Amino acid sequence: MKAIATQNAPAAIGPYSQAIKAGDTVYVSGQLGIDPSTGNFAEGGTEAQARQSLTNISNILKEAGLSMKNVVKVTVLLADINDFAAVNEIYKDFFEAPFPARSAFAVAALPKGGKIEIEAIAVSD
Questions:
Q1: How far is Cα 64 from Cα 85, in angstroms, rounded to an integer?
Q2: d(CA 83, CA 53)
Q3: Helix %, strand %, coil % for the chain, to 5?
Q4: Strands (DSSP E) along 1-125, which ranges?
Q5: Is the pTM for the entire model greater than 0.90?
Q6: Is pLDDT above 90 for 125?
Q7: Phi then psi for 38, rounded to 5 degrees?
């Protein structure tokens, strides 16, 4: 296993890695919509946080030598399931067909009061 870390995504807020590479697979930890340059949530609600979360994932994958095209599975955690459609609109800006497999869940709460957290699994070509 090899830890993947970049300053272009928020530092882990607990005892975990931004991502772990195991063989040809990269497991990206859940990313909140935090802007790494400020340490604060992206302003603009769930959509802005979703965009930042996916940008963070993209930056972590770039550090691993991969891109969003390598993503095979995504898990989306939402503080409010009513944001599902709005998140889909942002999501389409980061992925293209064939889209990765995906799960989405409403949760009672997210760390630091976030509105969305997204994790991803990517496989090198």
A1: 30
A2: 15
A3: 30, 35, 40
A4: 2-4, 19-22, 25-32, 34-35, 40-41, 71-78, 101-106, 116-123
A5: yes
A6: no
A7: -115, -25
